[in-house]
Write a structure and sequence with these properties.
Radius of gyration: 20 Å
Number of strands: 4
Order of helices and strands: HHHHHHEEHHHHHHEEHH
Strand content: under 5%
Helix content: over 70%
Length: 338
């Protein structure tokens, strides 16, 4: 294996991993707003929630395109195995995201008869989050592969573990949404988000603990990774850091802080994500295909990498600019307050 053949798949794996992490955090909070909709009954409160994410939500889905497109281009073999295994939850997720996007745009236009669009926005957000969790669960519980092809059935992903992962992501996104509202809104919306924050944080911690126990019990390869010496000593700080972040998040919620709950919730998500990656490195399709086995021809990877390296900084700069322009809290009954 040449240096290029060894290095390029690692670069692409890091790029795709970063895109997925950015998607989970950025689209996570606005999916969370939809999941929390049923807890906010007043139209004015819902309007304020929508305005808090209006400038961002469309751009946040960019990262899903980069993650999926990057997998298809850089790791076509992994794409060819993963997609047939997870077609149903992936299609469910995409339809829910389309439904939610249409509802977001039509809700304001349809007033005062907008109730059905509220339902569509909330349901689309919850279904998309749940479907993403089942995709994650289906991947973690190991896909059956024979001769570099998917060898299972269309419903192999549908297990108690994947359904639990779906529920975990719904709760996690709801926490991100509540923390976002604490940071970006004032008045009754912020107060209710704070009341919801602590139980949602407790729920997410319970799910993280459940996944942390379930995966090593179900998959010996992961148990070996986490509990074998000396790896145990290197990885032990991760759960300890998660507990510290959860405590800081709770304290931020109680103390009425704006930024601290959101920053800690995001960090907790990223830490859980890093933990899942460490459990499965270097597999792209655990436990059958590594990043090198699934990689495309180096020429294809280089060609796409050139375009990505040019466009990625532009996208990041644009998003940073949008977040800067629309900083500050959204007041009840008005748009942006600087």
């Amino acid at each position: 294996m040449s240096n290029l053949e060894f290095t390029l798949p690692i670069i692409w794996a890091l790029l795709i991993g970063t895109a997925v992490a950015l998607y989970v955090v950025l689209d996570g909070f606005d999916l969370g707003i939809g999941i929390l909709f049923p807890f906010f009954r007043e139209e004015a409160e819902r309007d304020q929630m929508m305005r808090s994410i209006a400038p961002y939500w469309d751009g946040n889905e960019t990262w899903l395109v980069l993650g999926g497109g990057g997998l298809w281009v850089a790791f076509p073999l992994a794409y060819a195995v993963v997609m047939p295994a997870l077609y149903l939850p992936v299609i469910m997720m995409l339809l829910a995201l389309i439904f939610r996007g249409v509802a977001f745009e039509f809700r304001g236009v349809a007033k005062p008869r907008h109730h059905k669009w509220d339902v569509a926005f909330s349901a689309g957000s919850a279904v998309a989050a749940f479907a993403q969790g089942t995709v994650l669960g289906g991947l973690l519980q190991e896909i059956r592969v024979e001769n570099n092809q998917f060898a299972g059935g269309a419903l192999d992903w549908l297990t108690p573990f994947s359904l639990m992962c779906g529920a975990a992501l719904v709760v996690g996104y709801a926490l991100l949404g509540a923390a976002w509202l604490m940071m970006k809104t004032t008045g009754p919306v912020e107060s209710r988000a704070r009341r919801l924050g602590t139980p949602l944080l407790a729920g997410l911690l319970a799910f993280i603990a459940l996944v942390s126990i379930w995966t090593p019990l179900q998959i010996p390869r992961i148990a070996e990774r986490w509990f074998h010496l000396p790896d145990f000593y290197y990885l032990a700080p991760i759960p300890l850091a998660a507990l510290l972040l959860a405590w800081l998040c709770r304290e931020g919620i109680r103390a009425g802080k704006s930024l601290q709950p959101f920053a800690c919730a995001v960090a907790l998500f990223l830490l859980a994500y890093v933990g899942l990656l460490l459990s499965n490195v270097p597999y792209l399709v655990p436990p059958s295909l590594t990043v090198w086995q699934a990689a495309a021809d180096p020429a294809s990877q280089v060609f796409m990498l050139i375009g990505t390296v040019i466009l990625l900084p532009l996208v990041l700069c644009y998003m940073a600019f949008v977040f800067w322009v629309f900083h500050g809290k959204v007041q009840p009954g008005e748009s942006y307050h600087h």
